[in-house]
UniProtKB/TrEMBL annotation:
Family annotation (InterPro entries): Homeodomain-like_sf, HTH-type_Tx_Regulator, TetR_C_Firmicutes
Domain spans labelled Transcriptional regulator TetR C-terminal Firmicutes type: 74-174
Protein name, entry field: Transcriptional regulator TetR C-terminal Firmicutes type domain-containing protein
Pfam families: TetR_C_8 (PF14278)
N-terminal signal peptide: none
Domain of life: Bacteria
């Protein structure tokens, strides 16, 4: 990808987020977006398949930036706070995505980032014998689905508690299981 392509992606992404402040994502057309950006439809299609592809790129780029791909946090809670902080700071866009594209879309994006978080921050540090491997794999899967579910529930309820309160409640639950594995 050339620098020009990345620049176009950033312009399309920021314009879409601005438009999503006033209009649901499901009502924003590629024509609306390209006119607002001052680029051609072909420029859009050179970079993305459709609006869904652009929205996914936005989440993966911004969430990965917020948690730092490959960064190992001193405390796993800090990484989790970064993920939920992104959601909180971008709540209008996140809620618009949820309402426009449905729960499944956000679930897929959250699952990808939660798996990264769990593998980098927690399960990478666990050394287990062969007989405990299945339990660790089950725990990894369990916590992925639990955290995604908690995140989606928090989004559905329009984020009624602060990020710190949410992560504090998650911490109380996780410490019981994860500490015993460590």
């Amino acid at each position: 990808m050339t620098r020009y392509d990345y620049s176009n992606k950033k312009v399309l992404a920021s314009t879409l987020k601005e438009m999503a402040e006033k209009k649901t994502l499901s009502k924003i057309t590629i024509n609306d977006l390209t006119q607002a950006c001052g680029v051609s439809r072909q420029t859009f299609y050179n970079n993305f398949k459709d609006i869904y592809d652009l929205v996914e790129w936005i989440y993966l780029r911004e969430v990965v930036t917020s948690i730092g791909r490959g960064v190992i946090y001193e405390k796993w809670q800090d990484a989790l706070i970064s993920i939920f902080q992104y959601i909180s700071e971008n709540h209008v866009f996140v809620l618009n995505t949820y309402r426009s594209f449905g729960k499944g879309f956000l679930e897929r994006v959250l699952k990808q980032e939660i798996e990264l978080f769990l593998s980098n921050q927690i399960f990478q540090k666990i050394e287990v014998s062969q007989e405990k491997t299945r339990q660790v794999e089950f725990s990894y899967s369990f916590y992925t689905y639990a955290l995604v579910g908690v995140g989606l529930d928090w989004i559905e309820k329009k984020m009624p508690e602060t990020v710190e309160e949410l992560v504090g409640r998650i911490e109380k639950v996780m410490l019981g299981e994860v500490i015993s594995l460590l």
